[in-house]
Amino acid sequence: MKKKLVSTLLSVAMVSSLLAGCGATTAPAEEAAPATEEAAPAEEAAAEETGEGQVVKVAAVETAYGADIWKNVAAEFEAATGITVELTVDKNLEDVISPDMKAGNYPDVIMRAVGAESGMTETFIKDNNLVDLSDVMDLTVPGETAKVSDKMLGGFTNNTITQPYGDGKIYLMPMFYSPCGLFYNAGLFAEKGWEVPTTWDEMWALGDTAKAEGISLFTYPTAGYFDAFLYALMHEAFGDNFANVLQYGEGVWETPEAETIFAILDKLATYTEPTTPANANDDNFQKNQQLVLDNKALFMPNGNWVIGEMAEAPRADGFEWGFTALPAVEDGGERASYAWFEQVWMPGGAVNVDAGKQFIAFLYSDAAAAIFAEKGAIQPINGLADTLEGDAKIYYSIYDTGAVAVLDAFAATESIEGTTIRGTFCDPINSLVTKDKTIDDWKAQIIKDNDTFRANLKQQ
């Protein structure tokens, strides 16, 4: 599942040459060793040029894409550079690597996106415990002639996620990305003759029609999936003020634009399948996804990893995946789709920094991209989407059919005990659906926490 697949949702930065400053020095003539003894230094220099004897420690979370993609990429990297990869891949990555990190032993490279329930990546950001990866963009991809910057899709490194401190420096490199939007059963829509709504007014009308047939309009896997949903909705509603919202601008949640968002969320809760909150957790989230496959709910926010997660699940006759951007808040208005992407980064405690950057650079190679793409893990690499077929074409072509891509996220803050972005902007949807909380309650919480976030913005 996990974004999360995400999130968020991408590729790592490439590394500088390990050879800089590593050439063997020549002894003065009067101290030169006999010719028969020069083999050892020569062999040492050759080892440095190939990376032989060097090590990079890589830790990656295992998602729906599986663990083998990382094993295969590591093997290709070792063959290309001679650098040995000590690889850790686990679904519960934080549990595996945290004890060592507490002892001061850090991986050199970590593949874990922002937005995870553990908040590990956000903690490293808040603690200023990241390596600056800006220079990776200028590195040549190992085994190729192109630089990382030549291969990267525009916009994926110039956003508030990859540049969390707003200082123009890249600390997280984008890896796999997934356009996020609303998934539905296109087969059911064809059977019923229903049109996919392009505005929220059309959405409510369809909800009434579906309700008459015993079908709910909406469900969601977990409350965490409201991050991508909300970013897209905020972009539609706030327009040019979107950047200010992400910086927790004073009074932004007491504006007419904010009222539009609150009204949509409040109404959407009444159209949500009632059992959704009970299963909106890491153990049972697939039960909510199954609602769409069983024609018990029409739409759910998700990323394209859901296809793999539900590949073996039963489904209604004629089921066919459909995907659409969020409806516009007004007729003719913008329709947005958040592009969630995963990130790779280096902790400040990394020891093998050059080798780590070299590994990150290799992740953008044609060889690595082919291994990832075979399992549906698509990176923001120029031209890669053109090679896709089938369902993947539907998702990765969404930005070619009028949807606006949204990539940014809330600005980083200092650690705030008991207050998180997810806890403020996502989790309350459960209580809204169950009627344990009103929209006014949620609004008051957002306004209060927004002031707290602004007061604790991470200093550059």
Summarize this structure briefly.
The protein has 460 residues and is of the alpha/beta class. It is built from 19 helices and nine strands. Strands 1, 2, 3, 4, 5, 6, 7, 8 and 9 form a nine-stranded mixed sheet that branches.
Walk me through this protein's architecture:
- The chain is an alpha/beta fold and 460 residues long.
- The protein has two domains: 54-178 and 340-389, D-Maltodextrin-Binding Protein, domain 2 (3-Layer(aba) Sandwich), CATH 3.40.190.10; 181-337 and 411-455, Periplasmic binding protein-like II (D-Maltodextrin-Binding Protein, domain 2).
- It is 37% helix and 12% strand.
- The protein has 19 helices and nine strands.
- Residues 1-48 have low confidence and may be disordered.
What tags apply to this protein structure?
9-stranded mixed beta sheet, disordered N terminus, 37% helix, alpha/beta, 460 residues, D-Maltodextrin-Binding Protein, domain 2, 19 helices, 2 domains
SSE topology sketch:
Blueprint: H1 39-50, E1 55-61, H2 68-81, E2 84-90, H3 93-102, E3 109-111, H4 120-126, H5 148-151, E4 172-185, H6 186-192, H7 200-211, E5 216-218, H8 226-238, H9 242-246, H10 256-270, H11 276-279, H12 285-293, E6 297-302, H13 305-309, E7 321-324, E8 336-345, H14 353-362, H15 366-374, H16 391-396, E9 404-406, H17 421-425, H18 428-434, H19 439-455
Parallel strand pairs: 1-2, 1-3, 5-6, 8-9
Antiparallel strand pairs: 3-8, 4-6, 4-7, 4-8
Helix pairs in contact: 2-15, 8-10, 10-18
